[in-house]
Amino acid sequence: MLDFISRMFSKENTSKNVAKERLRLVLVHDRANISPQLLHSLKADLIAVISKYMEIDEDALEVNLSSKDTQVALVANIPVKKMKRAVGD
Amino acid sequence: MGEVIVVTSGKGGVGKTTTTANIGTGLAALGHKVVLVDADIGLRNLDVVLGLENRIVYDIVDATSGSCRLRQAIIKDKRLEGLHLLPAAQTKDKTAVTPEQMKELCAELKKEFEYVIVDCPAGIEQGFKNAIAGAEKAIVVTTPEVSAVRDADRIIGLLEAAELKEPKLIINRLRARMVKAGDMMSIDDMIDILAIDLLGVVPEDDQVVISTNKGEPVALDEKSLSGQAYRNIVKRIRGEEVPLMDLESESGFFKALRRLIGLK
Q: Distance between CA B96 and CA B110 in Å, rounded?
């Protein structure tokens, strides 16, 4: 019982931490002034370039900005379906 | 020569008008000569929060357009000698005043008053641009919610772009019990995210609703916690060092209860 109560009070999954995380992410986008359209066309370009070398799952592709401390990173998660066979040589 | 301070937030409903009324009241209670300017043209509210709604004859648009003299539009408070209000117009819209007119108005007012406090409308459009045009300092009000903090962040960016450097933050409606339970962002969380200096924290308090019902700013209520918070903010505006109130300690009963069930 006590254990259960303590877990309820544990720091990890409090709604405050959820709020902070969501806020952080939203602010990274707001401050960078990157529009959803821009991110969308970046995605399209990424697909075009990478498709030249390997077969990727376009629908599952995710491109997002994230922040850690004071640094902002562009994080892309690109599932690869199949590597293309080397042509030529 | 006085100073012009704008109270702004981006998001509506976080307590800009209440904050403006209480800062003005607190400053006047300490003997300062203050004028509060309601820049929310079309949605006039500062008058009712101060309980002065029956005294309005002329308004800010009459004064800036020259339909009356500035002195005629300024209303004296009924309780405090030094407190004055320049009400917004209720029937016009935000375009009825230009940023240039606001600049002139503020320059005129600070010749006569020690503090000119401008209550900014919500949003980032014309009304916001007008309200900040004549200001030298800015106070950003937020509440511990994702939406309000997000808007505060945007406002801070816009203020800095308009050369209003180093705005100060007021966190309004903080619920210490929820912060403690991990269900509300804490003071440190918000300072961390917004990266600006804190001017004060006002706890959630029923007394604010009660005093607003009566048209008497809570800063005059000696017993209320929020009134004390506003009086502390006022002292900090005057340049005094006042420590933050201890909002996060809980009452004896709950502390005893928690200790009893072994939660320290």
A: 22
Which pLDDT band holds residue A7 (cuts at 50, 70, 90)?
low
- Closest approach of B129 to chain A, Cα-based (Å): 20
Q: Domains along chain B? A: 3-260 (3.40.50.300)
Largest pairwise CA distance in chain A:
68
d(CA B102, CA B107): 8
What rounded mean pLDDT belongs to chain A?
81
Q: Do B18 and B40 meet the contact criterion of CB atoms below 8 Å apart?
A: no
Q: Does the interface predicted TM-score (ipTM) exceed 0.85?
A: no
Q: How many CB pairs under 8 A join A and B?
A: 45
Residues of chain B found within 8 Å of residue A24, distances taken between Cβ atoms: 193
Ranges in chain B, pLDDT < 50: 264
Buried b (16+ CB within 10 A) or exposed e, B63-80: bbeeeeebeebbbebeeb
Residue of B nearest to A33 (CA): B154
H/E stretch holding B97 reads: none
Predicted local distance difference test score (pLDDT) of residue B264: 47
Cβ–Cβ gap A23/B149 under 8 Å = yes
The answer to whether residues B230 and B243 touch, using CB atoms and an 8 Å cutoff, is no
